[in-house]
Amino acid sequence: MTSVRVDLSGQAAVITGSSSGIGAALAEGLAANGCDIVLNGLGKPSEIEALRKRLESTYNVRALYHSANMLKPGEIADLIAFAHRELGRLDILVNNAGIQHVAKIEDFPAEKWDAILAINLSSVFHACRHAVPLMKAQGRGRIVNIASAHGLAASPYKSAYVAAKHGVIGLTKTIALETAEHGVTCNAINPGYVRTPLVESQIADTARERGMSEEEVVRDVMLHAQPTKKFVEYNQLLGALLYLVSDDGANANGTSISVEGGWLAK
Questions:
Q1: What are its GO biological-process terms (predicted)?
Q2: Which value, in Å, is the radius of gyration of the alpha carbons in the chain?
Q3: What percent of the chain has pLDDT over 90?
Q4: Domains of the chain in sequence order
Q5: Is position 65 annotated as part of the catalytic site?
């Protein structure tokens, strides 16, 4: 957990894809600072319920769960409505849900392309479309989209992911311009490689695609791009998030904070 502290008491947040990995860590970080939470994501119901109960008991906040499928716009709309109805407001939206597939462009399955664009990009649009009117009515809101270093740079074999994350950066800028006079900000965080369940599967996929060992993928492909040669830690992303959702971050708008060990400096 980061040492950064922001008073979020009385605020309510939705974090998509928050049943594990980055999303779960960000949800816990917001809860630790007093924010009520709506979790969302896939996983074993018992594990999600354990996370929900732990957030409530540890941080004395309300923690709810909504099972919206990020492939289904109607369910995304219901997620936002559920949060506002149950918690009485919506102050923070963190669009974090994402999937990945690694393959050469000529071998890339069309259905994988469609799913990655839908979950990694279109779900951000659908969530923002329904959250923005609520935030405008409140006169304050914070949208933070978890993009990627791949929103600003490309890597081979990741055509759909790179395209989607570039799209997230553009969408972030557009929403920021549309909401700037309403007390609502929209920014992005660009993580480098974080050792999440998604990245663990990507290591295996890349090893198969490139004919390498998994150890070689970590050393020569993933961390080769990050000059620090270290995976990004959850708390480092949380520090960026807490700044963006705070009053101190009110004039950060339409921008992105890259947390990638110097990858994009090259």
A1: monocarboxylic acid metabolic process
A2: 18
A3: 86
A4: 12-192+232-260 (3.40.50.720), 195-231 (no CATH)
A5: no
